[in-house]
Amino acid sequence: RLPRVAFLPGRGARQYPLVNVSEDERNLYVEALAPGVDPKSLDLSVVQGALTIKGEKPGLAQVAAEAFHRNERAAGRFARSVELPADVDAGKVSADYRNGLLLVTLPKAESARPRQVPISVG
Fold it and tell me: Does pTM surpass 0.70?
């Protein structure tokens, strides 16, 4: 029997959690779909232009592995890094976990915000 590799990097692992990245003038937003994850296990970090999400998704402890006919619901530790499209102020990042969705707000650094340039007419 082959070992389960759903959260192991480099061996056909799927990307988990699935993420959406969007932005407005002031912030970047990351929505990570992570149902069943223990919010206390979540760890977020912003380093060198990337957001890293780490955590653990518990499995079904009461069912022995050999009793499964099909097991598509992966469990275990995970880590996912997402490159950010702009510099952010890491000290002001906030996150909220609701109904299996991790919502991360990353305020853009002043240098990454658009600036209006006045035009002088002479």
Answer: yes
